[in-house]
Amino acid sequence: MTSCGRFRYWFAMSSPNPTGAREAVCGGGCRVWLQVAIPGASSGLCFPAFPSILGALGATGLGLTPVFILLPPSETKAPGGSGAPLRLESLHFAEQFTAIRRTLIEDLLALDDATMAQVLKLSARQRDEVAANRQLLTAATMPAIARYTGVLYDALDAATLTEKQQSRLMVCSALFGLLAATDEIPHYRLSGGTKLPYRDSTDPAPTMKRRWQEAMSQALAELAAADDLIIDMRSGAYQALGGCDDLVTVRVESVQADGSRKVVSHHNKHYKGLAARLLASAKQTPTTLPEAAAIIAADPTLSPEITDDRLLTLIVER
Question: What is the mean pLDDT of the chain?
Fold first, then answer.
């Protein structure tokens, strides 16, 4: 066992896991558990240490990154990839999400091309997205953080972040749920606002919220119980897929000529990308909201304001 004060890590090759712990397997074949010490309690809370967390550990086990930055996906995605075809069991949160992920893929592939285009609200110029979905199970993959493109991801510039810095990032996907930056995924099209029909059913098509909310909320609550800080930069459609009371939401506002403020819409993605990069690349990992705000304030274009203990507002120039 190694310890960093609040967190205890159990490593074993064959011995029984700690009482109440759930077993996970790291890349080297060792079974790994993460036990969170609860002040004043006689025992801790145990759950698997995710590979991205394990990758952030130093040789002494003291390098845990106690912050996660939760990002939205993007409609636009990089093509191609060099990874092996999708293996749902290899993705993070496999225990919680594999059944949901598989059902969504099966329901999506059960649609004929015309119906899929209609359900996904694709224009005639976007019909190649249908072809991409048809290859979900056979296409090459790439890390999620490289797959997503667009305004937020341009500002994030994840390719220039180290592996440890990328381990602080997660993406919330309508098809896959929560993804680590390193999770290998194919090109696909499915949005948070889509109502995807059940295959072989006449029931009304359920929302992504209905499909994901219970499982994703539970997974986020478990993460929040083990981490000091989860910064939620998702858009409203993806926040609806699941959440918990301990997430810190980020809002972007601009100051108008009369001194009033206005919520920034499209360009909020750019500012969130800048803030996410600052937090991911910080030398001293923030463990509190004031520490996170101080790191973001290093960018002169961003003026972070702690609106309350679960809301961080980024004030930008109009």
Answer: 84
